[in-house]
Amino acid sequence: MTAPPPIEQSLVVLDDISRFYGEVLGVNRVTLTIPSGITSLVGPNGSGKTTLMNIITGLVRPTRGSVRILGVTPSEPERLFRLVGYSTQFDSFPKGLTGFQFIYSFLRLFGYDHAECEKLAWKSIERVNLVEAAKRKVAAYSKGMRQRIKLAQALAHDPRVLVLDEPLNGLDPLVRAETIALFRELALEGRHVIVSSHILHEVDMISDQVILLSNGYVVAEGKIQGVRDEIVDHPMEVLIRCNRPAELASKVFHEESVVEARLHADGGGLLIKTRDANRFYRLLNHIALNGIEIESVAPMDDNVNSVYEYLIGGEEPGR
Amino acid sequence: MAVYKRTYKGYSGGLTPAWSRFLILPRYSFARLFQSKFLLLFFLACYIYPLGCLGYIYLAHNLSFLKAFNVSPNLLKIDGTFFLTFCSFQGAMGYLMTAFVGPSLVSPDLTNNALPLYFCRPFSRAEYVIGRMSVLVYVLSLITWVPGLILFAIQWSLAGWTWAKDNWWIAGGLLVGSAIWIVLLSLIAMAMSAWVKWKVAAGTLIIGIFIAGAGFGAAINSVMRTRYGSLINLSEVIATVWAKLFRVNPTTGIDLFDAWMSLAAACVICLWLLTRKVRAFEVVK
């Protein structure tokens, strides 16, 4: 087999992947290139997020297409599983183990010796702030602690690709913020952190890129602003805070690029819908020179929530 | 644009051999198993019969006892029948032990969705099954062929080299007969544990398979006027194999080849059931 090109050795590449469970579609014709950083998978129930994650982790073989995780294919499981760490969305724990035993015993499956496993287990437990609870049984952990110990087992063997299914689910705000900071830290170390989440504003906050899935197909992928720019069916919404919004409205309304202009409820701004944001921003510069004081210009719908709404519609984000 | 820098270094030390990794699975199982006082007592009770056999062997070689009670040395014979009885009794204890231990092998992992955790590591489904099975293999070995071989060794030391030379096949019978029984029980227990997540029901099913097999076998035999119904009676099938191994005439009326085929079929069915359930993901229909 020929070695993959060097650039591919730093990417997660899915090439025309399809996976069917009998007659049920998991994912269909998915082609993705995921660089390092935080990538979020978003989609309603049954959209194929977990199937995609299972394919990346090597747990499920695609019906067709090929997968390369940093240049390694699933046909080399010994190498692949050392590169990938997986945390499932389910509470998946063998019965009766303490937090430490849980991490330690799963590390032993990688073939590390006792001393190395102890060292790595404590290191990952420290990273998720569970040292004090490490000797307690996992069964007695709270939902948030169980999420963290799952994260610790995914991290423990120092993988380059982390696949985390709903990792923020059940965490209290403080731990959630700590966990997001940890994801950022891991991404800055050059790892791929692939998360699925149904909390869209969080996805917006943490992700370097987003993959939107619906009915097994990739609906959109990339940086969220870039994805928003591509959606031409829905005019972009912009909030302009200024001293004379009514006058601004009269000036912009006859412009071809403006579809809709309405005063903000608080009277201190103007909501504009435009089909050509760049042209509108140029126009705004011109208006600003003619006496209207513009305090701020903020796009209102270049976030995951809006993009999700436009592309996938009213379906509830999956859990 | 974010700039990412690889600042971490992966593990570069030695690895344990891949073949030995299944041994990690029973690591915590034994401690958990013997936390149950009932199971511990039952395990100890499994040694009552071997201790009785030990006493029997001692008395059979104790000339002063034989003289005092005027017992003929030929009456207390240590031969294939003696070890067949041992194997049958300990096999029955092993069967009950399996019904207690077996349900907790795979079902907790399935109930807790823990299988993806094993299979997203360099660890195959076969290694998982062998690892879980090894718990039963250890426990059943400790109550079947291990005490059996100890008794054989004691008899050998008391009766002398000539006895051992003439009866070496007994040791082989103990090993092979126990191994077949252990594999069969373990596979049945694993398959039931994988398919029936409720432990009590899985335990009942393990016992039920043998009872139902005997019942259906007898029904088929009487309705169809055949003997092939006995092939689904696993107790009779294994008794046939054991009898042949200990060079005793079987009373079951089952042909040895048919008995082997029946055992092989039971194992294949269990393996098939396991492959359907032991996998990293559940297919939602």
Task: Report the strand count of chain B.
Answer: 0
Distance between the termini of chain B: 43 Å
Poorly predicted segments of chain B: none
Give the SSE order of chain B as H and E letters: HHHHHHHHHHHHHH
Strand arrangement within the widest β-sheet of chain A reads 5-6-7-3-8-9
Total helices of chain A: the number is: 11
Main pleated-sheet profile of chain B: none
Estimate the strand proportion of chain B.
Answer: under 5%
Helices and strands, with pairings:
The complex is a heterodimer of chains A (319) and B (285).
Chain A: E1 12-21, E2 24-34, E3 37-42, H1 49-56, E4 64-69, H2 77-83, E5 84-87, H3 99-108, H4 114-127, H5 143-155, E6 161-165, H6 173-188, E7 192-196, H7 200-206, E8 209-214, E9 217-222, H8 224-230, E10 236-242, H9 245-253, E11 258-263, E12 269-274, H10 277-288, E13 294-299, H11 304-312
Parallel strand pairs in A: 3-7, 3-8, 5-6, 6-7
Antiparallel strand pairs in A: 1-2, 1-4, 8-9, 10-12, 10-13, 11-12
Helix pairs in contact in A: 3-4, 4-5
Chain B: H1 29-33, H2 37-45, H3 48-60, H4 63-68, H5 80-101, H6 107-111, H7 115-119, H8 125-143, H9 145-159, H10 161-166, H11 168-195, H12 199-224, H13 234-245, H14 256-277
